[in-house]
Each structure stands twice: as C-alpha cells, then as structure tokens.
Predict the 3D structure of the following.
Amino acid sequence: MSRPGTKPAKSPTNSVKGPNQLRIIGGNWRGRKLGFPDVDGLRPTGDRIRETLFNWLAPDIQGARCLDLFAGSGALGLEALSRGAGESVLVEKHPLAAQSLTKNLALLNAQHANVINTDAFTYLANTGVQPAFNIVFIDPPFQLDLWQKTIDLLAQGDLLAEGCAIYVESGIKDDFQVPANWTLHRDKTTANLRYRLFYRSEQALK
C-alpha cells in the first residue's frame, strides 16, 4: 500500500534494503510486530486509520471472508484475521512482499489465510467459482490510479456477498465512481489521504 509522496515502485527484481515493522493493533495478535520488506511504495495503513476502520467493521468482522486486493505488508488482511475474520485472501503482486506475507502467516500460525502472488486484475479476472466475500479492502499504490479499474472489475463479478463491506483508501484528490448499489457508510480524511467504507446491497439495483 503506497502513500502520497513515495517514489514510484521499482520492479519486482529489486533487492530488499532492510526490515520494516508492522504492529497488529487489536484482537488475538494485538501488539505482535512483524517484519516486511523495504519495497519502494509499500507502506502499511497507519495505526490510527486501522483502529478507526476496524471500529467501523466491528459488527461484521466475526467469521467474515475478507479479500485484501493490494495486500502489501498485510496490515489490513492480518488485522482482520486477528480480530476474528474467518478467512483472509491476500493478493500481492510483488514477489518479495508475497514471500514476507507467507512467512508472517506461518509465524502467527494463522489459519484460513491464503497469499496469492499475482496482480489484483489478474486475480479478479480469474477467480473461478468460490464463496463470496463479506469484506474487501482496496488500497492500491496511489501513484498508479487503479481505483476505478478495480471497482469496475469487482462490480462485474460475483465475488461480493449481499451486504459486503468495501473499504477504499485513496489520496485526497483521487476520484472514482462506485456502482449504484454501493452505499457510502463512513468517509474520513487526514492531511494526505481519504478513506471510505461502502456497503453493497442488491436492493439498490431493483
């Protein structure tokens, strides 16, 4: 997950420059610190934002099937598991980041988690038949402007359950359109970014 002002991501062949740490802030693994590679453009969603987000998601998180489309450090998908999600699918394109996610899941002895080393669009176009997701996290590298394409692909498929919660993190000025059946539930900004939670409803299409 990238933040405004970061340098463009380098190619997957670049080496890791040193360890960074992610702290899980709630749930069964509260306080656990996990390393992740120093890949340019990869930054975890901040503690305060995650705390706010998971307060919003508290009524829905238990047993939820979660999809973290641009997993990066795993801040969102791992936090969801820690707080009682039933499953997290973590999609991450960068090989080094994907390897780190797999290692951290093993360290946590995390059950019902799956790391998929591919880009989000390939995953969304080739999901096959599987249970629908209850929560989806969309936090792509900001400089690549991937929000609209991601949202459009999600809307075209059958991956979202009725009442699915969709979290979108973006820059302040980044714009996108959501389907008519996605209702904005929460909307907050910081100095550098905007984060929103939508809920999907079949009823809005009727």
User: Anything to note?
Assistant: The mean pLDDT is 88. Residues 19-205 form a domain with the Rossmann fold fold (CATH 3.40.50.150). DSSP finds five helices and nine strands in the chain.
